[in-house]
Amino acid sequence: MGLKAGIGTILHEVETLFDQVDDDAMARFAGRVAGVAGTVFVAGAGRSGLLLRCFAMRLMHMGRAVHMVGDVTTPAARQGDLLLIGSGSGETAGLAAMASKAKGLSLTVLLVSANRDSTIGRLADDCLVLPAPTPKSAGTTTATSAQPMGNLFEQAMFLFCEALVMQMMEDGGLTSAQMFERHANLE
Questions:
Q1: Which residue in 13, 15, 91, 154 is the catalytic one?
Q2: What does the pLDDT look like over 11-43, one tens digit per residue?
Q3: Are strands 108-113 and 82-86 parallel, antiparallel or unpaired?
Q4: Least C-beta-crowded within 10 Å: which of 1, 44, 51, 129?
């Protein structure tokens, strides 16, 4: 398989995945993220965590209070805040413990996952299911992928977050130029 064929396969898989995701479920989930009045805390392990850092950056560019859980500058969470977790399996032990702690602090917990019926999924106030195979959640979906491990889930989560940023920009009347004013300038 050549590189262009590989890109074609990836694009086809992502499009097929999103054809299976309910529009109302995406809109409801997006509304919960966009509508939070408090701070947004974002958490994920491995590649999911890295991709969610991109989303957190864009929320910051929009002027939202946002922090990656685990960064040394992350403040205390308070009632009214939101914890957004990305976990393909929904079973990552550290993230499950974090979700439990967040519920005890009266935070809203949202999960993007391939597995609604998971430890974190049962704790979450809402779960956006992206039906992709992941190695830690075998058997939770009949979906297949030519890509390794959790690539398809991670790509779909990233694209959903990118689309959510665009929707939030439109709803808030924000332009890219306005967001760029908050771009890092010490680099």
A1: 154
A2: 988 899 999 999 999 999 999 999 988 999 999
A3: parallel
A4: 1
